[in-house]
Amino acid sequence: MDWVFLAELAINGALTGLLYSLFAIGLVLIYKASSVPNLAQGGLTMVGAYVVLALSHDAGLPLWLAIPLAAVIMFGLGFGIERVALRRLAGRPVIMILMLTLGLDIFLRGTTLAIWGGTSRSMELGVSYEPLFLGDLFISRIHLVGAGVAIALFVGFMVFFRSRTGIKLRAIADDYMASWSVGISVERGVGLSWALASVVAVAAGVIWGEIQGVDQALSLLLLKGLTVAVLGGLDSILGAVIAGIILGILENVGADFLDPLVGGGSRELIVAAVLILTVMIRPHGLFGRHEIERV
Amino acid sequence: MDKKVEAQPILSMNSVEVLYDNVMLAIKGVSIQVPKGEMIALLGSNGAGKSTTLKAISGLLKAERGRVSRGEIKFEGTDITEMLAQKRVEMGICHVIEGRRVFEHLTPDENLTAAAPMGMSRSELDGEKEKIYNYFPRLAERSNSLSGYLSGGEQQMLAIGRALVTQPSLLMLDEPSLGLAPFLVAEIFGILQKINQEEGMSVLLVEQNALAALEIVSEGYLIENGRVVMNGTAAALKSNSDIQEFYLGGGEGTDFHNVKHYSRRKRWLS
């Protein structure tokens, strides 16, 4: 057994996992406020990446300006989605909202296809592809950057949810009616959660766009993001981060063991197994909120 | 000061009709006045329309696809019939909804923070919290545990405290005594009375527990089948034989003839 190689697999797996977390954090934000897994988070991530490209490559802005500007635009788009589409569905069954997010995902994919076409474009962040050596270990720089962004966002949101606005958002997640009764604007809160999730989507879009190129396939990251979010508990940001690391390591190390046995493709199997087993054995995930029952 | 302005009730509701889903008539021409600084009770049995009346006043009807289809509601002289619920809270109406709906996954302290109006400064909020903890010392003791694990009485106190953070001039409570032991009901009602006296806050109290409610209010309305069938001072209501028999559990034994007589009379009144 080559321990250095195994450690390398585990560390790079953990870093990749944190990139899934980057995606899952957006899902968690919306789930917390609306109790709906946002099936359009993939679409939003893809649009986030395209907006950055449009501002930097097409409009010629430098990246350090294009990315924050894209974040502002996407923040507005998130609010807009609540205002135009979700507000009408307030009080309807959750399945309706779920279908709406699915429709939105298809719509966003179609829109980017119409505007920018389907050829994969590169983000050109300028992060070097020279591997980083940590002792004997090879580490991918872009993954390291992405993991750093994920952790920064995680810390930022932990602080945010202790602020007054953050507490109001958590109150909305608990009880819409009680929130209205004390004058909390549920509509604005849900809008804010979509806006924040859209900003997270820009971060995920830039990093994943750099790694695998910007095209419609970015929206398919939803499946891994959703697995991480479910494993973490759907409404826990901490859960999303830890579950990301776990899934990343499982996937990378597990695939190394399994691939020779089954002839490849075991990554997808591991992800699928994690999703199915979580739902079957621990539906609240690792850190999910349990319904409080007093005895 | 102008005498007329002083005499104006803080809330007046005139022949209000409420429709749910555009078809179900829940209250049929309810008129209620709450004089400034008074405690008023809205009595009646299950499904009589008491909660609907409160929701019409607080604007929470909309969340349940209900609407005021006739009549008007005035708060401090302003027509609020069509106003957004959030706006009404800003104006000073706060509705403690039925069933102790605290934010279960937040601590009591966070529950109070969540209700703070947007413009309230930190020091102002701390002052409000201190005042609330003074009224409800039990809450102060448990201010950092999860609200979902508080006892029923504590949750009711928290729900009232949370409403107080919005600094209402009219506090409306929907069945605060529901499912609580009598000594707790007495404790909570005592505190309500204290708040009413110390802050001059007007209170509209919806109760099935007429016995407890009539002890602390000055005036009461009796609602049945979506209509106000009786209105009077607390003393008058307490001594009314029908109220005694049907809502206070007192009076002479009920014989069937009297019940029939009562319901016939009720039909006439409504």
From TrEMBL, chain A:
It comes from Pseudosulfitobacter pseudonitzschiae. One of its GO terms (biological process) is amino acid transport. GO terms for molecular function: transmembrane transporter activity. Keywords: Amino-acid transport, Cell membrane, Membrane, Transmembrane, Transmembrane helix, Transport. It is found in: Cell membrane. Pfam families: BPD_transp_2. The chain crosses the membrane at residues 6-31, 61-81, 93-118, 138-161, 226-249. It is a multi-pass membrane protein. One of its GO terms (cellular component) is plasma membrane. This is Branched-chain amino acid ABC transporter permease. Belongs to the binding-protein-dependent transport system permease family. LivHM subfamily. The keyword Signal does not apply.
TrEMBL record, chain B:
Gene3D superfamilies: P-loop containing nucleotide triphosphate hydrolases (3.40.50.300). GO terms for biological process: L-amino acid transport. The keyword Nucleotide-binding applies. The keyword Transport applies. One of its GO terms (molecular function) is branched-chain amino acid transmembrane transporter activity. Pfam families: ABC_tran. Keywords: Amino-acid transport, ATP-binding, Nucleotide-binding, Transport. Residues 11-250 form the ABC transporter domain. It comes from the Bacteria. InterPro entries: AAA+_ATPase, ABC_transporter-like_ATP-bd, ABC_transporter-like_CS, BCAA_Transport_ATP-bd_LivF, P-loop_NTPase. Belongs to the ABC transporter superfamily. This is ABC transporter ATP-binding protein. It comes from Pseudosulfitobacter pseudonitzschiae.
